[in-house]
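Continuing the batch. This is chain 6 of the set; chains 1 through 5 are on the previous pages. Same settings as before, nothing changed between runs. Recording input and output for traceability.
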Amino acid sequence: MDAGLAAVCGALAGSVATIGAALATGWSQRETARISARSEHQRQRHEARHAAYKALISAAQSLNSVTRGLRHDPQPRDFTPELAEACVAAESEIKEVWLEVVLAGPQNAARAANAIMRSANVMKTATEIIARTQSFQHVTQELTEPSPKTSSDHSPRQPHDFQKKQADS
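Output for chain 6:
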């Protein structure tokens, strides 16, 4: 082989090796960037889900603390208008974060959030109805029970009182 051909072959081999190295480096960088982007995307999804789950759990615990007194043998008198208002506020809070969980979470999380939402709605509705019933019963009792007469009452005299007075005179 003469020196010119050897120089051309050497230059060709060097350029092929350089091109191969450049392709391998490019592929490696592309894969590294893809892995980084994927992990960043997963981290962002995880953070959004974590925040939504945390908010839903907090709202559910709020409803739980409101209704804690109703655990053992609840009586109708326990269902006050204040309890109903607190249940409405807790249910409203759950409703706000429920949508975030449904949008951010997978199907299993969405089903769990739906169950929590339905339970909160039932609890809110039940406490409102029972509290209103208690309020109506209280008003009905006040209207039907005779009020105790006091000495300051200026009630009209009964006919028999008038007759007694005439007989005494």
